[in-house]
User: Fold Vanin-like protein 1 from Culex pipiens.
Amino acid sequence: MRIVLALLCIFCTVYSTHQLSSPENDHYWAGVVEFSSKDKWTTTDSPATYVARTLAKYKEIINSPDADPLDILVFPESTANAIETASFVPDPAEKVAPCNNLRYEPIVRDLSCLAGTKQLYLVVNVVEKASCPENGDERPCASDGLNHFNTNVVFDHRGIVIARYRKFNLFGEAGINTTVSAEHVTFKTDFGVTFGTFICFDLMFDEPALKLVRSGVTDIIFPTMWFSELPFLTGVQIQQAWAYKNNVNLLAAGASYPEVGSTGTGVYAGKRGRIVSVMNHLAETKLYVASVPKIDRPQAEIKKQPTIKYTAAQMDTLKLKRDQIDGYRTMDLPLQKTDTYAASLCHNRLCCNFTIDYDLAGPVTTQPFYRYKMAILDGKRTFDGFADGFITACAIFACTGTTLETCATRFEHGANTVPMFVFNSIELTGTFPGGEEVFLLPNSVDTSILPLEVDEIEYSEENITKDGKPFVEITHKLVKPRSDLYSFAIWGRKFVQDQDPNAAVPVSIGSTLLVLVAAVCSIMFK
Assistant:
């Protein structure tokens, strides 16, 4: 009897280590993986060999001690497989666990088995194949009778596929199909949290991302292979800003290939800021774990981890695209000390006010230093030719010289720069169009390619009505001194004008990475 009781105790102890958090808990445990994708683009191995090697790495992470406490684990976009190794994915309505079912490729069936064994919610991004046509889709099919999708697959702790989201806003991605309309995919968990999910470039649009938030979803799963861009759209920068504005928990897992601009992983607790995040200068595969406070438990303690912060010289190896800021209206920040500098700028129907208190660290030197321009835009841009978007923004951004062409660029190869401008405080204010078709957020990034911490800023919005139309008055403040800013902005999107033929895309010197990014995107899912 003693032996039986001892065995039962051992069983209970082991089983308890795999218990999910409960609905009563104030927190849940999440893991996000920054996964090196360099091998995918440089390997000479067959697609099947690559997938087998990647699957082994996925399994190693899932089976690692660091993953033991997790309730949910998220892998990034575009690291698992490719079109040649695409897999069928069960319809979640069928409540199928594809474990050991040979209809599905190993990347799907093996991870289903492992999710069940580890009693873990698991989110994996795969290239999915599906029979064509599907119900409600009257578009012509490919000659092989298959569609291919960039798909998030969600396994529950039994290995059952409980959610499947197909990316709607593609960033190139030759050979990949979209659904007829954007899917709004959510799934419930046993620990009392309902998640929504979308992928990478979806973040830039109203559908499906913001529609999920407006429906009441408070926790978002976000696999991505982001191509970072100065001065407003580097990976962690936009992840934190999006989570802050929507006050949602965001679990972002990023593919890691800094040589083409891809990195950016983190867990964000809405307006409480990032719990853990990383912007890498070298390709990395690593699991990041966080205790996530539930949004409806404001009293829950938040346990932020020390920021992983690299120097500007180290981050020089991270390639960064450049926004089309040549279309912005700008004004130089004077290279002379004043008590408080104030200025106003207008572009089209948008006007913004700038109030800046800054010191100069010393006299002008022959050593390189960043100058700054105040800037405003109410106009359209292209996202590397894959889509157009209407931008509305007021900003201060750094320049390596005196001309606009030198802005949103960096001094290269670890130049020994002097921090000439010390910003004691910045206040940006403006009256922007309101309503659901406009999305605005606080935006900032420093020389380590990380956003400012939430306690370094103050951001407020007040909805007003003018002539029967909605507007929003926004104030964004820097409240702690900084001498390492690349940008500080109110930045946003006007979705209703994305397709406006009268809103011209500005001519730009473009990005030095445009050709490389286009090439990567064209082979991403082959």
Q: What stands out?
A: Residues 1-17, 507-526 have pLDDT under 50 and may be disordered. The first strand starts at residue 27 and ends at 36. DSSP finds seven helices and 24 strands in the chain. The CA atoms of residues 346 and 359 lie 26 Å apart.
